[in-house]
Design goal:
The protein has about 300 residues and is α/β, with parallel strands linked by helices. Helix content is about 40%, strand content about 15%. The protein has helices spanning about 10-25, 45-50, 70-90, 130-140, 165-175, 195-205, 225-235, 245-255, 260-265, 270-275, 285-295; strands spanning about 5, 25-30, 55-60, 100-105, 150-155, 160, 165, 190, 190-195, 210-215, 220-225. The protein has a six-stranded parallel beta sheet, sandwiched between helices. It has a three-stranded mixed beta sheet with strand order 7-6-9. Helix 2 packs across helix 3 (about 70-90) and helix 3 runs parallel beside helix 4. The mean pLDDT is about 95.
Length: about 300
């Protein structure tokens, strides 16, 4: 049975990928803190699991949906860089290392963009805490030089799916009449349907020439205003009260998160995937939300 190792695989994305790979006949081995997973402290066990694996997918990292205080910042950094380092060293100890190592990254690494889209070739790296996390995460990953393992960093946009992520909070806002624009509504919203993310992984696995950075985002990013309007339309809600920045600041403080998650303009284009001929099953936000909100 072919084998895939997923680190940090118990979250929304990891669970989806695990189920899809298992349906394809793969043995899926999980590394993480939950019972039944190989613990991060068992470095020998991780190396053993990686022997002859077709692929390693690393999704480990503390959620950024929290207040950026000193403690949370330290955990956000360490949960990404230390786990990536553990996996890299485990691969170095393998006699037959995995063919492909996919490491999560984030499209948030690019600057706040309202003037033009960010691509792998022309995107400008931003500033601030989230960007510094992404930069250090990718540096830790690419500092490993593994002659027998291809390395790809997935700069993922917001992942949309029926069973987790941001969909349920947005559904609640729209359901109770609060699904208007956030801030001025002009900030761009880059996203990816979770099934397209899975298909991108299969595409990278098949195309051995792919390495380095890949933007995992749908080819048609939209503004926050368009996103919320489409969401209301799919849910048949005509009214959506707006949330100005000052109100979002209060709300973020009350629920323990940061407004950056809503207000940063992420205008990201999957240039490399498009050039390589990847076809998105859900290229538009309307098609994606129809699938997630109606068919599921």
């Amino acid at each position: 049975m072919p084998k895939i190792v997923i680190a940090g695989g118990t979250g929304f994305v990891g669970q989806y990928l695990s189920k899809r790979f298992q349906k394809m006949g793969y043995q899926v081995i999980l590394v993480g803190r939950q019972q039944g997973n190989i613990p991060w402290t068992d470095t020998d066990g991780i190396s053993a699991a990686l022997e002859h694996a077709e692929m390693l997918i690393n999704l480990a990292g503390k959620s950024v949906n929290c207040r950026y205080n000193a403690s949370n910042k330290a955990q956000i950094f360490s949960s990404r860089t230390e786990t990536t380092s553990i996996l890299g060293k485990a691969i170095e100890n393998c006699s037959h290392p995995p063919i492909l190592w996919l490491n999560a990254s984030t499209a948030t690494i690019y600057r706040h963009a309202v003037d033009r889209p960010m691509t792998e070739s022309s995107g400008e790296i931003g500033t601030g805490f989230s960007v510094e996390v992404a930069k250090k995460w990718e540096k830790t990953f690419f500092d490993f030089h593994l002659p027998h393992t291809r390395q790809v960093a997935l700069r993922m946009a917001i992942v949309l799916g029926a069973d987790g992520g941001v969909i349920q909070p947005f559904k609640n806002l729209v359901r109770f009449g609060l699904g208007g624009i956030q801030g001025n509504g002009d900030q761009y919203f880059s996203w990816i349907h979770i099934e397209d993310l899975f298909q991108i992984i299969l595409f990278i696995q098949k195309h051995h020439e792919i390495d380095g950075i890949i933007n995992c985002a749908a080819p048609n990013p939209i503004t926050n205003k368009t996103f919320m309007g489409t969401f209301r339309s799919v849910m048949h809600r005509k009214i959506g009260l707006p949330s100005p920045k000052w109100l979002l600041e209060i709300g973020a403080l009350l629920i323990g998160t940061e407004t950056e998650l809503l207000l940063k303009s992420r205008w990201v284009i999957p240039e490399r995937l498009t050039e390589l001929g990847f076809t998105f099953q859900f290229p538009t936000i309307g098609k994606a939300l129809d699938d997630i909100l109606i068919l599921k």
